[in-house]
Design a protein that fits this description.
single chain; 201 residues; mainly alpha; Cyclin A, domain 1
Length: 201
Amino acid sequence: MVDMNDLDRRLAYQTPPYEQWKNNLCSVSPGPLSSDRLVSRIGIALCERTCKISTEKIRNEAVSVSSFVREVLKRSKSNTKSTVLAFTYFNKVYDSQSVRDKLPEFARCSKRVFLSCLILANKFLNDNSFTMKTWSMISGLKQKDLCLMERWCLDRLDYKLLVTETEYSVFENRLFATSNKRMRCENESGRDLSYKKVRTI
């Protein structure tokens, strides 16, 4: 049972309007989902969207992507809501992509694009969000590269960061559905990422 008073206190620090997020938090999820399962499903879903645009250099392998997502979420202390919102942005970025578009190299990397979407999600949901300097420390990427990727994602989203409750629910439910999909990308052996590993994305 959700304590509405406690919920109001927590949401008071979110960027208004927050009614749609309040309703969403009070709704019943399709089932229990641990953080590890969430990360695993996000990794598979990101791979599904980007494996066709992978290159010899950028493979977008699901286990590697999942390890990266897990580490970035841990370092940034992102909650489930910002994670699902970032996943929503990620899908909308590639939904807007024409097959004729010439993608910059970083846009073929699901890790970098998801990171950019996570930055946008955190900025949208929080009045006091991390600076690019902090995100640079979290990811190991240069600030100028992060800014470039963020602007590219914003352009793809047409600067429309507001997501309706219906849209949010669609992508949240899609994460639950990924467990029934076959992984179409080749996996690599999984292991935790060190800071040195994250710097190689």
